[in-house]
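Structure tokens please, single chain.
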Amino acid sequence: MLCNALKNHRLPHAILFTGEDGVGKSSAAIELARVCNCRLTGGQEHSKKDAAGEIFACGNCRSCRKIENGVHPDIHSIKPSGGYIRIEQIRSLYASLALKSDAASARFVLIEDAHLMNAEAGNALLKILEEPPDLTFFVLTAPDTRDLLPTIVSRSRHIRFNPIPQKELEDYLVSHRGLTGQQAMIVASISRGSMARALNIADADWINYRNFIVETIGELPGLPAAFRHAFAEMLAADREKLEGIFEIMKNWYRDLAVFPWSPEKIYNQDLIRQIKNRAMQIPPHLLIEKADAVVRAEKALAGNANLRLTLDVLVTKLAQ
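Here you go.
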């Protein structure tokens, strides 16, 4: 779709990429900016086509290298700050776009996690989209259209990124990460079509860590309060792992809830025996409550809530 738009000189001024985290939305946005600004030494436009006629950037010219290194003056990137994209960031963007372009063929504004714009930021962006500066293109990324202002969605060309097929993920993990077929199957299944998620967990140690987490949360109801506090303290000690830990927990409770109805759709296929045993012991409504508690903890930490207190509350809820 993008190649056809480029060939016909009909690239929309606003494009919305939606899909799971880690399926290539931001990478595609960066590559689009590179293609539109790729030039040979001397300022001549440069583009290449592969055998299928797809356009790609040379990767070697000054513009391509600047974009790759994140220092191109006409490529503006906006990401959430403190859990949200705020109106101050959009105002700063507006001021930057008012300045003269750096002689690039196109200016790009990449807004990642656009669904995290607060209402004021969304309305401010809408005003820019209604009268965009010349040769300025906006690429927004979000999981879905439902969390965005309908007026922003209506002014954007929507392109949906599908999850990467599990077999493709498995083949990549075996050939590029050295995983065994069994390990690749486990990681690809849990990753739910996300390359980024698969790469983050693509090692045997992660599988062992997952086993430890699911075993521990399964035993929490019968453990003393002192152990629960120690478990929360252990989780808080390495905040960088929390995103992965939350994914493990959500996937586990989801599998327990799904197993009685569709056992073939569980993510942790290698733990099917444990899942079968545990699914018979926990009522469905309690599984939903535990999964919701994990989601609330995620959102609280994204909003800069107290780390240790949040995890203490979560572990207490999971122990019920």
